Amino acid sequence: MKPYLAVIFLRLSHAVLSIIAKYALNQGMSYYTFSVYRNAIAAVAFVPFALLLERNTRPRMTLAILYKIVLVGLLGPVIEQNLFYFGMKYITATFAIPIYNMLPAITFVLAWMLSLEKVNLRRLHNQAKVVGTLVSVGGAMVMTLIKGPVIEFPWTKHKMDIGAKHQQNLTKGFLMCTTACLSSAIFFILQAITLKSYPTQLSLTTLICMVGALQAAILTLVVEKDDAMIWSIHWDIKLLTYIYGGIIGSGFTYYISGIIMKQKGPIFITSFAPLTMIFVAVMSSFILAEQFDLGKLIGAIVIVVGLYLVLWGKSVDQRSSMIHKEDGATAPTQQQISATNPSMQVSEKDSPEMVAA
């Protein structure tokens, strides 16, 4: 039950981050410095725990592991975060998040290709995983494409959509968020691979955030070299976004995701991505006064159905794996049988005597 609650917490925290980040972007926050500050804060927050709790278990750093960490830090903290929040400047939160519901399908295909996920389409539970992934993506598309009548809530009446006054470019925003989604899928796959050779998750999380912050800082200095004001920090919504995005959005997300991936693989993590859409749709109606229509409600129901199918298929996989492990542990070998039953051992010398008798 704990992995399920943990992933739901991650989805909820991602939804909260999307809402406050959208508001901060509307107030002029730079998505470049957001990536730098949030990952720097995460690294500073997690490095004491990594040094203290994993000092005796941390494996030796090799060049191959370092290459993987640098690539993971580039994919997640730099490419994915910058592109996603760059795209969110041009579209609403309830339009950006549904794009991420392609994440389960992309991750599923990549994990299948890299043999991280075993799929036998002749088995019913494997069919359920495939169908459930497609249904969840379909539900996300329903939320995005089908509008229907607006569902009025008491808290949305007579309120202006905060995001409406900002310029929107659906094409640019869609392309940026879609590319970010692809980068996120590769990030999860590579993180799962890196965990096999560097299994100390606190240290790995710290290194990912540290390397990501460094690469993001270099990118920001190159792209925004003429605008020093974007580095300024004040007591406002931007600072709250930096801190929350660093500790929760980067640090805890990478750490908890890594722990769960060790147990259940990257597919389990990304299968819950459609839940973020539901959380964002509800919260954005409160905070950003974005409209909630019938299409979003129907899509949310479809997403839940697809998620249930995927989770059912994964649970059958887990039970089968546990049964195989138990069978392998309890099945006696021929040597064990011989050792525990000496009377069954018949030597070549004893055989003629027994026949003669």
From TrEMBL:
Domain of life assignment: Eukaryota
Chief location category: membrane
Single GO molecular function: transmembrane transporter activity
Limits of the EamA domain: 3-144, 172-311
Ranges annotated as biased composition (Basic and acidic residues): 347-357
Entry's transmembrane regions: 34-53, 65-84, 90-116, 128-150, 170-190, 202-222, 242-260, 267-288, 294-312
Membrane topology, from the record: Multi-pass membrane protein
Compositional bias (Polar residues): 331-346
Cellular component, GO annotation: membrane
Coiled-coil positions: none
Region (Disordered): 327-357
Family according to the record: Belongs to the drug/metabolite transporter (DMT) superfamily. Plant drug/metabolite exporter (P-DME) (TC 2.A.7.4) family.
Protein name: WAT1-related protein
Organism of derivation: Olea europaea subsp. europaea
